[in-house]
Amino acid sequence: xxxxxxxxxxxxxxxxxxxxxxxxxxxxxxxxxxxxxxxxxxxxxxxxxxxxxxxxxxxxxxxxxxxxxxxxxxxxxxxxxxxxxxxxxxxxxxxxxxxxxxxxxxxxxxxxxxxxxxxxxxxxxxxxxxxxxxxxxxxxxxxxxxxxxxxxxxxxxxxxxxxxxxxxxxxxxxxxxxxxxxxxxxxxxxxxxxxxxxxxxxxxxxxxxxxxxxxxxxxxxxxxxxxxxxxxxxxxxxxxxxxxxxxxxxxxxxxxxxxxxxxxxxxxxxxxxxxxxxxxxxxxxxxxxxxxxxxxxxxxxxxxxxxxxxxxxxxxxxxxxxxxxxxxxxxxxxxxxxxxxxxxxxxxxxxxxxxxxxxxxxxxxxxxxxxxxxxxxxxxxxxxxxxxxxxxxxxxxxxxxxxxxxxxxxxxxxxxxxxxxxxxxxxxxxxxxxxxxxxxxxxxxxxxxxxxxxxxxxxxxxxxxxxxxxxxxxxxxxxxxxxxxxxxxxxxxxxxxxxxxxxxxxxxxxxxxxxxxxxxxxxxxxxxxxxxxxxxxxxxxxxxxxxxxxxxxxxxxxxxxxxxxxxxxxxxxxxxxxxxxxxxxxxx
Length: 588
Hints:
Number of helices: 17
Distance between the termini: 86 Å
CATH architecture of the domain at 231-408: Roll
CATH class of the domain at 231-408: Alpha Beta
Helix content: 25-40%
Shape: elongated
Structural class: alpha/beta
Strand order of the largest sheet: 1-2-4-6-7-9-11-13
């Protein structure tokens, strides 16, 4: 019986030994004057003895590929340089409140570490202390910490949010470099950080954080007027003002690059990739070893290399050849590089696609490498860096500062009451580029045809046929298409009067015909106080358009106030755009 009981106890002990980690013996630690200089064991779970005050340099290097668990003593005051560097299986670390310093690279490349709290007793977190901790999702920095050195959290690609307490007065360069999932950061709200930022003391704090959406308490955000892309576009801007015809060569190349693409955003991306992938950066010019430089678009194509101005001008030309509005933005870059003249001047583009301004920098999209022999940059052979296409604005603003802005003249700005609807119509591709402006002017018959044709084609996804119309005073394809579709009639048998203005009742008739072409049905029309002034030929059109409501509940064409319709009043461009938008929204 005793023998059997002994066997059972032995079996139980063996099972327990397999179920729990093996813990280190005291003899596995080499300790000199309180400094743990080396762990000589091979266990996966280690408890460091009380009395140890410092983890020495590379103390756990021997078990960096096997260590899973470590318990730090309450006597510990310093985690030294590279103490736990490369411990790739270490999932958690409880730093005791006795620690005042975390050294350089202390936990670098601890790629299984998911949660981290840095207690307020720690005054300094060293260079690259938690660099390449790619699984780190939870980071708490308690009040009391004062210094976060350079690249301390470099490459922590799973980190999404961080709050740095007000006690921190020093933020090292590249602190969160390459934290590609970081979306929100709260910086210390203290004068030391504000002053250091203005003096350039926080260089590239969030470089390559291309998901960054919000920085709280950042002087950079508030002082840099170009943090948001639409602050480069100040006030009202008509995208159509930034499209111009291009040469046959550039148009043919642009068509080739965008072949098979219908979406403007995809076209912008394709052009970015082509320019970045096919035009080399002229480092010989940059470093001052040559004087000549190609910057005009076709010169850049011939030379096959240029600098930022040439990249921006070629990109703009190829975009505009597709009818895509494109800006050439001039400013400076803050990556520390200057050209042969000591200038940090830079240029990039913004393109209007899918109803917004898209940032793209084809120059930086052309990847480069550092020549270790010369210390100079050189071309990487056509590799494209995608992070400079449509980056988050806060990420982009870490390295780019615009020094130019774009805005429309008051005459090319819609009235306040029409502004939102005009912008929505532009974003919906309902307003041709050359009709974006002089919004209070009377719209012409030919212009109104173009709005109706754009509306039908955008709503149906089908181009209207445009056979020759029987008019001698216009060859406009839009007039021909609208005439063929039954939207308009001529002023006479042979004349259309393309430059003539239209009245409200004429607009109502053409809108009702367009609605009929789209198969839309209307409810009961309004009764107007001046209904007796509406021409008999226009009465049905007025009733239809005043009885037709869009998806927001707005009538396609209502009255002008005081119960009137004002049938003989001339129709303005912004009024026509507004009713075009409403008609487009019907049936949605």
